[in-house]
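Milestone 3.1: sequence recovery, worked example.
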């Protein structure tokens, strides 16, 4: 169902020049980089920023901006219709088997929009063997969205409690961990989640490739701002 491990991207449009001195600026206008291109990407050290409007149709405008991998955001105006329209995210590639992936963790702090007409989830998307296996780690979401597959069990991993769901999107299995207490800042220990899946026989000992973090946006009618105040992935 979901295609977020991008294989191609267009060059970002040049950054617009600032307005007159003293004029108010949007985050995108003031940022180091921004793009409204559907597949806009920007490399910042070992991280890549993706605008990633991946829905084939029925999507609205979206602009991603960034000063760095730890300071970026997106303005998105997605219609109040069903189906995920985009997954703007920051990505870093690990390239290690689960059995030898070491201690992998990620910390973040985000500011999410409020109001009516919103449907989205804040989530990590961890990919195994390219795009053969998809591990989703949901940290926060609106009540009108949910994971692929059915509930399996509750498990404590990496110091947090998660409700585990398992399903298939038609292209690859999806393993979803939903925080029992939603949070918009904190640290997620990714290694114990991956190793639990392997130890339980639910996923083979895959190579963990891209570790992505961002928002799956279904609707944000009228235009909403999603901001990353800080972010890092350590391994």
């Amino acid at each position: 169902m979901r295609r977020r491990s991008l294989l191609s991207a267009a060059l970002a449009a040049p950054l617009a020049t600032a307005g007159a001195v003293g004029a108010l600026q949007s985050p995108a206008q003031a940022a180091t980089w921004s793009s409204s291109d559907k597949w806009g990407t920007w490399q910042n050290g070992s991280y890549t920023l993706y605008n990633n409007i991946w829905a084939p149709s029925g999507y609205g405008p979206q602009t991603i901006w960034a000063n760095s991998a730890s300071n970026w955001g997106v303005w998105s105006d997605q219609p109040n219709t069903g189906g995920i329209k985009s997954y703007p995210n920051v990505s870093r590639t690990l390239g290690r088997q689960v059995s030898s992936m070491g201690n992998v963790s990620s910390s973040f702090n985000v500011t999410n929009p409020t109001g009516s007409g919103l449907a989205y989830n804040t989530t990590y998307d961890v990919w195994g063997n390219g795009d053969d296996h998809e591990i989703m780690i949901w940290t926060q979401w609106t009540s009108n969205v949910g994971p692929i597959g059915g509930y399996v069990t509750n498990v404590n991993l990496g110091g947090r409690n998660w409700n585990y769901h398992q399903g298939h999107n038609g292209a690859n299995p999806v393993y979803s961990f939903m925080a029992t207490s939603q949070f918009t800042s904190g640290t997620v220990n990714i290694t114990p989640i991956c190793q639990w899946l392997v130890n339980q026989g639910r996923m083979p000992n895959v190579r963990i490739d891209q570790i992505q973090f961002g928002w799956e946006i279904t609707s944000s009618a009228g235009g909403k701002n999603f901001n990353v105040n800080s972010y890092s992935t350590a391994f």
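Residues 185 and 231 are 9 Å apart (CA to CA). The first helix runs from residue 27 to 30.
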